[in-house]
Design brief:
Helix content is 41%, strand content 16%. By secondary structure, the chain is α+β, with helices and mostly antiparallel strands.
């Protein structure tokens, strides 16, 4: 049972032999000890890094399995994050998901990293983790551990100064606007972020199911809601215009004091900017209208305001070229689709609306708001700042 493990590091490519694991082993059958063995072997090939203790599995990963690996004193990194992308959704193994998504994330870390072509869009105030290396045999990516800090969904549940919450929204808006603006119409980036399988999965798992979600919510116009969402999902299968982060929600934003780290880029692709804008807006809206704490709604409202204002401001004269009226309407449709998925759909589990019946007032408000955004994008006020 010999296996060649190919390791792409920052400095070199190495091949090591593993005599104990079968490369054809079913990923569904991997257990924690199997993965520990693989991680321990791979870590040995990181220059100037020595592992202090066994990898620690982290909770909360929805798409992937994630470990933290502490380094000994004097190691080049105090700790690393290892992410394994299986050929399915980690939190729902019945749903297949292209493991090649981890290559997309590695590309993002490199392109926005210190020597990357878009490095000028990042700084210590807001950036991605540093790429360390990737093992394509097992679809495992090793990266800098940016910190053991709260993500934005945790941060907004605590009392925060209004200006700080607003400032976070502004910085995210500036960063995402610049990513969209400076990646537009770049054929080389379009190839590096060609992630069609992920978009096809999103069509099948999200947009094609919106009609079913609307029916489950007992919306009178369920057919029209579903057809509009499906049309948008099909539009997203066409060649895109800019780099899309693809998973821009609160758990993907780590808050470290005055610094932000944007993680989880495996759903990134060359697509339409409405997905990023509509996605973050939807999740902030849900935290505003079903806040986990008394502070959450105010913090989320200020972040959303700052995000939309600065996104529009930073696009400036390029707004119509990058986003325009179509982008506003498309963002509204994605906004509604995501809310339906989180309130009555497959992705309710583990989220703000888990366990609520369809006739609960919060579900009723959310699903009706979602339907209005999908059917009448120009009539809702959520994205008025962008007009």
């Amino acid at each position: 049972m010999n296996e060649a493990v190919i390791i792409h590091s920052r400095h070199e490519t190495t091949v090591v032999k593993n005599e104990e694991k079968d490369e054809n082993m079913d990923p569904h059958a991997f257990n924690d000890r199997d993965m520990e063995f693989i991680l321990e072997k791979l870590v040995q090939n990181i220059p100037d890094f020595r592992m202090q203790s066994k990898p620690v599995r982290l909770s909360g990963g929805l798409l992937n399995y994630v470990w933290r690996i502490k380094g000994e004193i004097g190691s080049i990194y105090p700790s690393l994050i290892a992410k394994w992308a299986p050929p399915f959704i980690a939190s729902n193994p019945q749903i297949e998901l292209d493991p090649g998504r981890i290559i997309i994330e590695a590309n993002a870390l490199k392109i926005f990293g210190k020597a990357g072509s878009l490095s000028y869009l990042t700084n210590e105030k807001i950036r991605l983790p540093e790429f360390v290396f990737m093992d394509p045999t097992h679809n495992i990516l090793f990266m800098e551990d940016v910190c053991n800090c709260p993500d934005l969904s945790e941060w907004i549940q605590l009392p925060q100064e209004n200006e700080k919450a607003y400032s976070i929204g502004k910085r995210i808006g500036t960063f995402i606007a610049n990513v969209h603006k400076y990646s537009a119409n770049q054929s080389d980036l379009a190839l590096q972020f060609l992630n069609q399988r992920i978009q096809k999965t999103r069509l099948e798992v999200l947009y094609q199911n919106v009609k079913m979600y609307a029916q489950k919510a007992h919306l009178e116009n369920a057919d029209d809601v579903g057809n509009a969402a499906l049309a948008y999902g099909k539009l997203l299968q066409a060649p895109g215009k800019v780099i899309i982060m693809g998973d821009l929600w609160l758990p993907s934003i780590i808050v470290s004091g005055e610094e932000l780290r944007i993680i989880d880029w495996e759903l990134a692709h060359y697509g339409r900017p409405s997905q990023d804008v509509g996605h973050l807006a939807a999740h902030l809206w849900m935290h505003i209208h079903r806040p986990p704490s008394k502070y959450t709604a105010d913090n989320a409202r200020l972040i959303l305001q700052g995000f939309l204002e600065n996104y529009r401001a930073k696009l400036g004269k390029d707004f119509n070229r990058i986003f325009g009226v179509d982008g506003v309407q498309e963002s509204s449709i994605h906004f509604g689709s995501e809310i339906l998925a989180r309130t009555v759909g497959y992705f309710q589990t583990g989220y703000l609306y888990q366990g609520l019946d369809w006739d609960h007032p919060d579900i009723q408000q959310a699903t009706q708001t979602a339907a209005r955004h999908i059917l009448n994008p120009s009539g809702e006020k959520t994205f008025d700042i962008l007009n």
